[in-house]
Write a structure and sequence with these properties.
Low-confidence stretches: none
Distance between the termini: 60 Å
């Protein structure tokens, strides 16, 4: 079974964006097209780098090149060109937050409050509310 990704780029499409990528020099085992298709596979499938299929090559080589291209701005240029040429359209459908980056207020963690409530001298102030507020929708004009 030869599975191809929905977001995989063909050789003809690659020639349209080839100018955005750095020239390959020396003894390289993976072409820029293979690496780019691996990036798109990870983005589409949401898998870990180690989960890349063997047909893309060594996952660490791909990750290293992605990291280098990201820092130098190559990936920004490539994806902007891909979107502009309508070769690949990316739509963000969900946003995920990691709980390690969200700060919680101390009250939300169950910590004891530092203040002590003092009873009021007036019994009306300390009692239950005398009215109930019901929000109402305003009529549309």
């Amino acid at each position: 079974m030869n599975y191809t990704s929905v977001m995989e780029i063909t050789e003809a499409q690659y020639q349209q964006i080839e100018h955005c990528l750095p020239r390959q020099r020396g003894n390289v085992s993976l072409s820029n097209l293979q690496v780019l298709n691996a990036f798109l596979y990870v983005a589409e499938q949401g898998c870990k780098w180690r989960g890349l299929p063997k047909r893309f090559g060594n996952w660490h080589t791909i990750y290293t090149r992605m990291n280098r291209w990201s820092k130098s701005g190559v990936l920004d240029r490539v994806f902007e060109t891909l979107q502009h040429a309508q070769i690949v359209r990316v739509k963000i459908e969900a946003v995920s937050l990691d709980s390690t980056i969200v700060k919680v207020h101390p009250d939300g963690t169950g910590a004891l409050k530092k203040t002590v409530r003092k009873p009021s001298a007036s019994p009306e102030v300390g009692g239950p509310p005398r009215f109930i507020w019901l929000p109402r929708m305003r009529e549309r004009l």
